[in-house]
Amino acid sequence: MRDEQVEELALRAAGGDGPALDQLLGTIRPQVLRRCARFLPCYQDAEEATQDVLLQVARNIGRFEGRSKFSTWLHVIIANCARQTYRSLKRRAAEQAHALPPVDVPDPRTTSVIAGSRLDLLDALELLESERPELVAPMVLRDICQLDYAEIAGHLGLPEGTVKSRIHHARTRVRETLLA
């Protein structure tokens, strides 16, 4: 399905068209799964995040006003849900570590360069969010979702120069964290 058709479906769904929402969710699911898999190292985790994204889209489609592209709105939801899934998995793992006897589970950081890099990046983003939350969204939208600066500026309601500056500062902080 072409981007224009997806945008039209999104506008119809936002207007309360139930069949359009069903079709929209079915259409975007593969793309959402691919995007979530860019964040999360395990396919099952990406599937969990995908379900959260689709649920958020279904619940909040009425808030989509069409001022920005639907794909931009969707990327923000994907980034937020994938990061929330990671935080939830991390919290569950910590709780299980205290509740159960130790089990020798391989650390993805040592068994897979790609998985380890993703986890390190998510940890760095979590640290950045606790220190400078305003820097996270622009960097995620640019470097992970691959939106252009104008789209990011429009979605966040910021001047393009501010977006570029925040991305630069975010990259610097994340680089420092990753190299530490």
Known CATH architecture of the largest domain: Orthogonal Bundle
Sheet having the most strands: none
**Radius of gyration over all CA atoms, rounded:** 18 Å
| Oligomer kind | single chain
**Count of extended strands:** 0
| End-to-end CA span | 44 Å
User: How are helices and strands ordered from N to C?
Assistant: HHHHHHHHH
Give the structural class.
mainly alpha
Our estimate of the beta-strand percent is under 5%
If helices are DSSP runs of H or I spanning 4 or more residues, what is the number of helices?
A: 9
Described by the principal axes of the CA atoms, the overall outline is globular
**Uncertain runs:** 103-115
Helix content: over 70%
CATH superfamily of the largest domain: RNA polymerase sigma factor, region 2, helix turn helix motif
For the record, the count of structural domains works out to: 2
CATH class of the largest domain: Mainly Alpha
CATH fold field value of the largest domain: Rna Polymerase Sigma Factor, Chain: A
Keywords: Sigma factor, Transcription, Transcription regulation
Organism: Paractinoplanes abujensis
GO molecular function: DNA binding; sigma factor activity
InterPro entries: RNA_pol_sigma-70-like (IPR039425), RNA_pol_sigma-70_dom (IPR014284), RNA_pol_sigma70_r2 (IPR007627), RNA_pol_sigma70_r4_t2 (IPR013249), RNA_pol_sigma_r2 (IPR013325), RNA_pol_sigma_r3/r4-like (IPR013324), WH-like_DNA-bd_sf (IPR036388)
